[in-house]
Each structure stands twice: as structure tokens, then as C-alpha cells.
Amino acid sequence: MPTQSREGAPFPRGFARFNRKVANPVMRLAAGWLPPFAIIRHRGRMTGRNYATPVLAFGTDDGLVFGVLYGTSSDWVRNLLAAGRAQVKWRGAAHEYDQPRLVGRDEGLRLVPAVVRGPFRLLGVRNFVRLTVSPPTDPSANGSAPAP
Description:
The protein has a 6-stranded antiparallel beta barrel with strand order 1-2-3-6-5-4. The protein is an alpha+beta fold. 28% of the residues lie in helices and 32% in strands. The protein has one domain (13-135): Electron Transport, Fmn-binding Protein, Chain A (Pnp Oxidase, Chain A, Roll).
């Protein structure tokens, strides 16, 4: 069984720091186009800076689910939960999502494809983030009509 960090992450925080500096810039080149990789665009809850974080994304009936590989204290998880929304580029298209929520291992594993359940179990992934796709914005809702 892999060694778990304090917040139940299958990978140590040092590995996350390496990924942030080295692997993520490379992954951002393909993520968003090459499934199951996606890019979550989120705003820093303290700095207000915009970030683009590559993640593994899987479709659900009402949105997406992501395995939390570095624990729930990861900045992208905390930023997403604090903001309550994010833009995700997945399979070549960007969409707005809201209602982020942490879900446990059992619910998360039911939401991902069967082919990745075994590897996620072996890695000890215990947390997932689930997002719901935002409804399209209705231009008439704010009193302005669409341009002819």
C-alpha cells in the first residue's frame, strides 16, 4: 500500500511541487485536448491570480469528476471550493462548471470509468472533486436582448 500523506493523498507533497514547476507546464500543452487530461482554470483565493492546472477528468451525467492525487489541501482544490465555480477545458472545449464538492472514495470510484478504478484504488486515491456543468447564460435574464 502506498505511503499516504497527512491529508490522505496518494502522492507526497514534494512530488506535487515538482509537478507544479516541471511537469505541469509540459502537460498544459496537451491537457484539454487529450483525454482524460483537462485544464481547470481557477482564481487564487488569496492572490486573485488566475491559474491553469492540469488534472485527470472524467465525465458524469451532470458534469465532471477529478481524482484528488495530492490531497484536499492542494491549492487547486481549495481555490475551486472557495470560488464555487471554474472553467474547465476538456476534450477540446471549454465550459463553465459550478457546485464543486468533495466526494469520498466510494462515490468517486463509482463515477469514474471502470478501467481507472483499479489504478485509483492501488494508488490510494480517497478523495474526488465533482463539478456540475453550469447552465448556459440567458442574455434576456439580465434585461438585455441579444443583438440582431
